[in-house]
Amino acid sequence: MRLILLGPPGAGKGTQAKLFAGRFGAPQISTGDILRQAVADGTDLGRKARSFMDQGALVPDEVVIGIIEERLRKPDCARGYILDGFPRTLRQAEALSQTLRAIQAPLDRVVSVEVPEDDLVRRLSGRRVCRGCGQMYHVEANPSRQAGVCDKCGDSLYQRDDDTEETIRHRLRVYREQTEPLIAYYDQKGLLARIEGCGSIEEISQRIARALGRDESRP
Ligand code: AMP
Predict the structure, then answer these.
(1) Domain that holds residue 64
(2) What is the model's pLDDT at position 215?
(3) Ligand 1 centre from 85 Cα, in Å?
(4) Is residue 173 a contact partner of residue 160, using CB atoms and an 8 Å limit?
(5) What is the structure's pLDDT at 27?
(6) What is the pLDDT of residues 127-152, one digit of tens each?
(7) pTM
């Protein structure tokens, strides 16, 4: 399965990408995760990306395009890929098309996960992430059993630096201006499926599976 999950910050792309990566045996490729790891490791890439990320701005196209070109050429992508958070601009989408042509791994589907803006702000401001395994929680909708501790691996939970209200509003504006045009771009190519991103994790994953032509009730 070769898939892009498109949608605003907080739409649940990361959660769904993890689920489908497990199901299809294909890697989840999140440029946000790769960049956060680079920041944590203090690499050159991390130093370049940090100020953009802290402001909720996009990291320059040439930086993220380079990351994706390298990542998609790794052997685990032979089984497919689930792109989460890339592409985010038309230039990134064009560069991606070129890379996918070069490695002969064309897209199967682009799923746009759609959620009203007020819900996104609520979701993002309550989001907590495990430092150890990346599992996501929400302080109200999906809290961990013990506050601040991951149910799965016992590591501590943290709030992302860019999950504060002002930065969230900015990230949503950036999404509307720079990323939303990709919905029409992929629709014109006949690759787009739109799904409603409200409801339980399970309900949303069923909608995605249907959009991919996979009936979840079958093994
Ligand atoms: P995310 O985890 O996908 O919400 O990404 C967090 C931050 O990483 C974004 O707000 C951007 O600063 C940066 N980022 C992630 N993916 C991209 C991308 N495809 N293009 C530019 N910046 C990105």
Answers:
(1) 2-116+180-211
(2) 60
(3) 6
(4) no
(5) 97
(6) 999 999 989 999 998 999 999 999 99
(7) 0.90
Q: Is 218 a catalytic residue?
A: no
Instruction: For residue 50, tell me if it sits in a domain.
Output: yes
Best mutation site among 5, 6, 53 for ligand 1, i.e. most ligand atoms within 8 A of its Cβ?
A: 53
41 assigned to some structural domain: yes
The total number of structural domains that make up the chain: 1
> 136 lies in a domain?
no
Give the residues across from 208 on adjacent strands: none
Is any ligand 1 atom within 6 A of the Cβ of residue 13?
Answer: no
Is 86 close to ligand 1, i.e. is its CB under 6 Å away?
A: yes
Q: What is the pLDDT of residues 89-101, one digit of tens each?
A: 999 999 999 999 9
The reply to whether 27 falls in a domain is yes
Q: Whose CA is nearest to atom 6 of ligand 1?
A: 32
Structure tokens at 82: 């689930």
Label residues 106-128 b or e (16+ Cβ within 10 Å = b).
Answer: ebebbbbbebeeeebbbbbebbb
**Element (H or E) spanning 69, and its range?**
helix 61-72
The residue-averaged pLDDT of 201-214 equals 93
Q: Is the CB of 2 under 6 A from ligand 1?
A: no
Closest residue to atom 5 of ligand 1, CA basis: 32
CATH of the domain at 74: 3.40.50.300
Residue carrying the six token digits 């009203």: 116
